[in-house]
Each structure stands twice: as C-alpha cells, then as structure tokens.
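Q: Second attempt. The first request was missing the SMILES, so the protein and magnesium ion are both included now.
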Amino acid sequence: MESSTPSEEGLLERICRRDRERKNIIEKRKEEKQQLIVESEQLSYFKNIFYSRCKTIKDWLDSTESVPDSKLSKIFDNVQSEIIILKTYLFDSKIFLKAYDLRRAQDTLQILENDATQLETKLIPRKKFGFKNRRVFNTSVQSSDVTDDLKDLKIAESIATNGVGKQNNKQICNRYGDNTCMLLGKVDEKLVLDAENVNKNDVLLSDLKRCTVRVYGTPNTLHMVSLVQCTVLIGPVTTSVLVDNCHDSQFAFACQQLRLHTSTNCTIYLHITSRAIIEDSTKIFVAPYNWTYEDQMNHFKLAGLNPKINNWNSIDDFNWLTKEKISPNWSVLEPDKRVKSWD
Amino acid sequence: MGLLTILKKLKRKEKEMRILMLGLDNAGKTTIVKRLIGDPIDTISPTLGFNIKTLDHNGYKLNVWDVGGQKSLRTYWRNYFESTDGLIWVVDSADRRRLEDCKEEMHKLLQEERLEGATLLIFANKQDLPGAVPTKDIATILDLESIKTHHWKIYKASAITAENLLEGINWITNDISKRIFYKN
Ligand SMILES: Nc1nc2c(ncn2[C@@H]2O[C@H](COP(=O)(O)OP(=O)(O)O)[C@@H](O)[C@H]2O)c(=O)[nH]1
Ligand SMILES: [Mg+2]
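A: Got both inputs this time. The predicted holo structure:
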C-alpha cells in the first residue's frame, strides 16, 4: 500500500497529463468559440447601444414640444454632446462594421442631427448664435477690390446727387452703369420718385432722417437702410422689399416678399402676396396697405402682384419660431390707430 | 478598407451627389431650385430652416440642400457641410449694397475644412434685371481668381428666364463625377 509501482506511477501521470491536455484543448476551443461569439456579438452589441442611444436622443427631441422654454437649451446641449459621443463611437466601431451597417448608422445620426438643428432653430429664440465676427475677413488683402468698387459707387452716388438733385426737384436717379434709383443722406426733406425712373429698377433709400418719400411705380426690389423717423410710401414692388436698421418710421408698400432686419418701432401698411419675415426686430406693427394713387392698379399688374391676395397679418419672426405663441416682436396695429389719409 | 473608400464605393454605386445651395437671403436660391424642379416660382416665401430637394439629372441623384440665408441661420450652415460634394453659391447680381457681405461670406465658407475639395459653382443670378452687375464684374468683386482650393466656375444666370441653370448644373455634376466616381 505504501507506494505504487513505477509503471503505475507512469500510467497515472500520463493519464493526468492527457487529462490536462484535453482540458487545455477544450479551454482553447472554448476560448476560440468565445472569440467568435464576441465578434459576432460585437455588431449586435454595437447596434444595441447605438440605436438605443439614438432613441434616447429622439425622445429628448420629442420632449421639447412639451417642456418649458427654460429647459430647452439644456436639452439641446445634451443632444449635441450625445451626438458627438455617438459619432466617436461609430468612428471607433467602423473596423468591424459592414458597409451597410456603417451607412445606416451614419444616416440615422445625420437625421437626428438635422432634426435637432431644425428644432433648435425653431424653438430657441436666437441669442447665442450671433454673427458678430462677420467683418473678420475685412482686413485681408483681397478686400481692396471691393472697397474700390464701393468707392466708385459712392462717387457715382454723389455725382447723381449733385447733378440731378438740383435740376429735378430733389429727384435722384443715378445711372451707375445700371438703373438703380437712390435717395441717400437727406434730412427733413420731402422726396418723390416717378414711375418712369422707378419701373423695373431697384430702388435704394438709405440714411434718411425725418423725410417723407413717395415712390410711384413698380420697383423690382426695394432696399431701405438706416431710415429714422421717416414716412415712405411706395407702389407695388415686383419681388422683395429688404429693410435693415430702420427706426421710428412708417412705411406703406406692396410686394411679394418682405425681409426686415434689425429695426425697431416701425409701422408697415403692407400688401404682401407671399410671406414677410422679421429678424432681430422689435415693436413692428402691421396694417393693410392703404396708400392709393392714380394708376396704382396698372402698377399692380405690371409688378405681377395679385391685388386680391394679401397676407399682411401673417409674419414669421426668425427670433421666435415656436408655433404656439405669437411673437411679441410684432403685432397688428389697431384700426383706430391707423393712418386714414396720407395726403 | 478605410471609411473613405467605403463611402466612395457606396456613392459610386448609388450615383448620388450631395450639393449645398448657399448664399445671402434673397439671392434666389429657392427660386433656382424650384425652377430646376419645375415647380411654380411666383409664390415663394422666405426660407425658414431649409429645404432638401432631390433632382434626377443625367443619371445622377442630386440631393440639393437649400438653406435659409438669414443671418441667424448662417452659423448653422456648418451643420450641412459633412460629405458635401458640391457647393452652389448664389449671388443677387443686382444687390450692390450687399456684394461685399456676399464676398466675405463666400470666402469664409471656402476656408471650412469640411468643404475642402468640394466643387464650387457660382450663379451670378438675376441677370435678367437691367440693374444687374455684369458677371465679369461679379467675378472681380468676389475675388474668384484668388480661389485655389476649389474647382470653381461662374455662370451668368437668371432663375426667371432659366438662363444657364442647366449648364451650371451640368458643369458641377461633371466636375464632381470626375473626382469621386472615376478617380480612385
Ligand atoms: N428678377 C429676378 N428675380 C429673381 C430671380 N431669382 C429670384 N428672384 C426673386 O428674388 C426674391 C428672392 O428669391 P428667393 O428664391 O426666395 O431667395 P432665397 O432667399 O435665396 O431663397 C423673390 O422675390 C424672387 O422672385 C431672378 O433670376 N431674377
Ligand atoms: Mg430661400
């Protein structure tokens, strides 16, 4: 009983060794198998994580409709950072993703990102996305061309002002190789532009103070920039009216589109066949177009504007894109406050 | 196989191009897109956000993104840059007042890393107007000669008469396809 024979020992050892080897092989196979599973599971793991987090983002976005305004920017911040995380995750996973899965994941992210941007633009009134450094590139050498060009424009303007202004009862129409009509830099004046000069041309009114301007006829486009305490009456404009930096003024015009920027305390007697948008503006009042003159109906025809379609009281505010509440930046001028006669 | 190769292969298979349509507001972007599609153009409203339209052109599927030009949206343009093959920059040739602004925005855009290599088509739009600045002057004012980072070409155009719209689209799709579908 004390000891087994050498041959027996040998046998036992051999059995043990073989058993160990067998176990090792099994272990190895198991590992290999495991590895395979891991690889195939990697994809479903990725998909699980990726799409469930996409779903979360989607839920966040859906919640924005019902959440108080104060919470919105937090949500959009979360959405942004989550999207970035997912982008990184996707990028890191591309080694084991098939082209199709990769493409699908990318598309899903892209759609979410677009939705987020769209919703954010719609729901959050602009504050943090100013466009402050717009002039940054002004200092580059290339801008000299433009400055030169604008210089020419200025010179042409002043020729027009001096030459025509005196002869033609303050009526200024310049011919800087084109047909732009301009009224620039006037204070306390009554100004008139006639149909023959105006029709089909662009009209620019700029830097006027306490002036009354009447424009008969159909401008193609009307630009009004930096007007203060002015009254401006205009015939039907073929395409759009662009207003920028105007204050304490009243306007009457008909047009297809209106785009009003950075202006305050202005009343617009408006005929508009498509839509008006305002941006960075407050205290904007609207009323229906009520300035009339002889020939106006012909001018409507000439401008291609339908006198029967007028969307004067539906204005989109780029700083106020929620649908539930109306923008505080504009309102309809009460009827008893409207100007009855312009003469 | 790298990500780019995969994307290239996918694109080649689907013959799809992503084209961004940008420019200041009122330049005529939406009108051009509608004109190309054949939608009526007399009821166009200022674009809130953006429109995506798909055009089938010479066997290519063009996804055209028409992004609102309002100031508050310009900082969002970035969000649309990823995998853009071509850029159509629309200029209101009659809007002298903002040509400088137009130039600045365009050059700023071209410095964007994500737009590197994208083909650039410039439409000097509204050339039907008597007050339009001639196309070669637009080219000078926009300082196109200084652009070395992108293939570019400027076309005299009008969304109203449709002048050169198709020619422009032909050029940009040809240029893009040379780059992404045949070269590898
Ligand atoms: N005369 C003329 N007007 C145009 C042309 N293209 C657009 N418009 C007008 O310009 C205004 C702005 O056009 P829109 O497409 O909304 O500009 P967007 O802001 O760039 O999308 C509209 O009133 C159009 O009718 C054009 O080629 N010629
Ligand atoms: Mg538009």
